[in-house]
Amino acid sequence: MPDPSQSQPRSPLASLAIIAAVIAVGAAAFAYTAGWFSPDRLTPTRLVGALAPPDGPALGHRRNHAKGICFTGMFEASGNGTALSRATAFVAGQYPVVGRFNLGTPDPNATDATVRVRGIGVQISTPDGEVWRMAMIDPPIFPVSTPQAFYELLEASKSKDPEVMKAFAAAHPEFAAFGKWATTAPWTASYAEVAFNSLNAFIFTDSAGADHAVRWSLVPQAQVTPISGSDLEKLGPNHLEEDITNRVGNAPQRWTMVLTEGEASDPTSDPTKSWPPERKTVQAGTLIVQKIEAEADGPCRDINFDPTILPDGIEVSDDPFPAARSAAYAKSYDLRTSEASYYPRTAGSTKP
Ligand code: HEM
Q: Which fold has domain 4-342?
């Protein structure tokens, strides 16, 4: 008697049909992910595409914050941050850092005084193998509340018709606070004098398992000397990189990491809304920038400062930005690292 558990051999045609069906499902999944079925859906490809200037992106470079300079140093944790998070980076000690000062522009050759937003990428590594990456900027609030609105802002700001930007601002009243900062905040002539803000809120979990909503800042320990945009322009197109190279060459530069704990009434999902200034803060430690490194093919080039790369003890909140940023940064990273003949290298370097 035949064994009923043994099935009959499948015909070659049926096998081919199954293979074709598997390939079709896979292709459909890729097409869905790429947004081909829903051209209006906000995909990383569309977000990154919207960052590109009208004459196209600078190939081989970050699709935003393309102008920058790399550094190495350490994070010296005070131990106070352990009140909010069990992340090892907050246990008193010194942890190696790779970071990058940068300007919020898709143009790696932009003149310093033409770029209002300054940023910093930081990676802190701890001996237990945990890594914390962050990318922060100097405005105290983000211009818009959602990734979709950020896409619309990018599109509107590229229009030659001034009415388009006016219509955007009218439809997004939350944009006004950023607009005010961008037009009235003083400039400084040094990255060492810039305060950088996470803006996005994250959930910190302490060693007892309690959660805390946190935003954080890196506050400069250097004396801040405000200057006008036109005075910055007079210092030259690449003053910020020259200045930070000289300063760090003379002495390490320091920023205090200040954690701000939100209360239940403070919005965690909207980076356009600042939290009341009286909120409890904790000085978690000091970022010490010890060495300026080559931008072209130094230790930052191959790092994606994805803000969702978080150690145990820190998680994303209901803020929609980190997930959208993670997907867009990965897209940018894939593009720039695959543009092999444009990928930055210092002259004569053998680094791939
Ligand atoms: C949906 C909103 C956003 C999009 C689409 C976006 C897009 C990007 C892209 C494509 C890059 C280049 C990534 C790479 O190639 O490695 C980048 C870098 C950066 N972004 Fe964003 N970004 C967004 C929001 C933000 C926010 C809210 C902040 C700060 C709070 C921020 C700060 C930075 C910084 C500092 C860098 C440079 C990091 C580095 O040196 O590699 N971005 N962004």
A: Catalase HpII,  Chain A, domain 1 (2.40.180)
